[in-house]
User: Which sequence fits this backbone?
């Protein structure tokens, strides 16, 4: 790692302390690395001699003199942004949810309509036969076969989807059990 | 070594390394290391603390195209070293007491 890489990583690791303090630490370590290079070490060797940056960061944070900024100071900013941005993301979120629900409704509606078609065909078939309406009867038979075929094909996937949805929605109850 | 003891000793070690002439960070570490383990992350707070306690002063000088910080002992710093040497006599007698008791029990 080169000196800049080390100092950048160190700065990131010390993000929780005040800017002023952090700058002083970075200056100090920069100087230590420069001093070692003067003694004849290469930049890489000098950085290595100072130690792995993770160790340095934890050593610094352990020092009782190093005060870490209260984390709660930063939270209000986050919340302000979230609430302030609500007019933007809330409608999008609602729209997305609506789309998902609509898609689900479509799937069930389509499945139901094929089942309906099959049932309809079954009901109509005897009527057409009784009337001597051969084309009608053929149509009804075709409808029964076609619709029930698709309904059967859709049955298992739709069942799995339904189970998955139940688990997603009622997962906590499952856990409690 | 006990952490609290070490911290107190590091202070006087750093002062000792600058008692005869001004020194800078890396040189101080090199001087103290043979006697007690010290790293940059322990040295820097010590330097800051002693500067706040006015036992040393800091000044910068240009060195090979960059700024280097030098540390100079003050009178208060020298006083701390004198106190340490005096305390040592007390510490020695306590040490005798501790090993003396040990012999009786062992």
Assistant:
């Amino acid at each position: 790692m080169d000196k800049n890489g080390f100092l950048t990583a160190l700065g990131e690791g010390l993000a929780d302390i005040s800017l002023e303090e952090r700058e002083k630490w970075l200056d100090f370590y920069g100087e230590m690395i420069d001093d070692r290079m003067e003694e004849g070490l290469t930049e890489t060797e000098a950085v290595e001699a100072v130690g792995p940056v993770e160790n340095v960061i934890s050593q610094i944070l352990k020092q009782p003199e190093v005060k870490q900024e209260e984390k709660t100071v930063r939270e209000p900013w986050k919340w302000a942004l979230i609430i302030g941005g609500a007019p933007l993301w809330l409608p999008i979120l609602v729209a997305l949810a609506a789309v998902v629900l609509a898609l689900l409704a479509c799937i069930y509606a389509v499945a139901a309509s094929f089942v309906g078609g099959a049932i309809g065909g079954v009901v109509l078939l005897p009527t057409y036969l009784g009337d001597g309406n051969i084309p009608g009867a053929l149509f009804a038979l075709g409808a029964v076969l076609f619709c029930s075929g698709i309904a059967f094909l859709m049955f298992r996937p739709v069942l799995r989807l339904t189970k998955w949805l139940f688990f997603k929605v009622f997962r906590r109850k499952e856990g409690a059990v | 070594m006990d952490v609290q003891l070490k911290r107190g000793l590091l202070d006087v070690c750093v002062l000792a390394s600058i008692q005869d002439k001004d020194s800078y960070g890396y040189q101080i570490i090199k001087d103290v290391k043979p006697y007690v383990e010290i790293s940059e992350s322990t040295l820097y707070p010590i330097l800051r603390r002693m500067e706040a306690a006015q036992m040393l002063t800091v000044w910068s000088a240009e060195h090979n195209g960059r700024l280097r910080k030098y540390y100079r002992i003050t009178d208060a710093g020298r006083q701390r070293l004198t106190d340490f040497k005096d305390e040592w006599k007390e510490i020695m007698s306590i040490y005798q007491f501790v090993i003396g008791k040990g012999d009786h029990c062992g």
Remarks:
- The mean pLDDT of chain B is 89.
- Strands of chain B lie at 23-24, 56-63, 66-73.
- The two ends of chain B are 23 Å apart (CA to CA).
